[in-house]
Fold this sequence. Notes:
single chain, mainly beta, 7-stranded mixed beta sheet, 4-stranded antiparallel beta sheet, 11 strands
Amino acid sequence: QVRLEESGGGLVEPGGSLRLSCAASGIIFSIRAMGWYRQAPGKQRELVAAITTGGSTNYADSVKGRFTISRDNTANTVYLQMNSLKPEDTAVYYCNAVYGLRSSWGQGTQVTVSS
């Protein structure tokens, strides 16, 4: 099993930045990809960004050019750097890891963009 712990959410003004972190533990050697999803009130959970063990990345169109996903293999941690934040980025952000035919989710961290 892979366990995930997110951190770094909070309240930020429009145009500001935040960095989310997701630390993985457990059978981490089996992880194939990790990603960040978000869910706003009344909306479905959506993929924000993902990164494979090979380093390939994928972003939602709405965050391209503003968000960057990266990883630190030595720390078993994935980051989401969020710049130029907009009110519509407000959501609970969840970390996800895919390993084998399974996936794990973190508990979520709230990001609120408001003046």
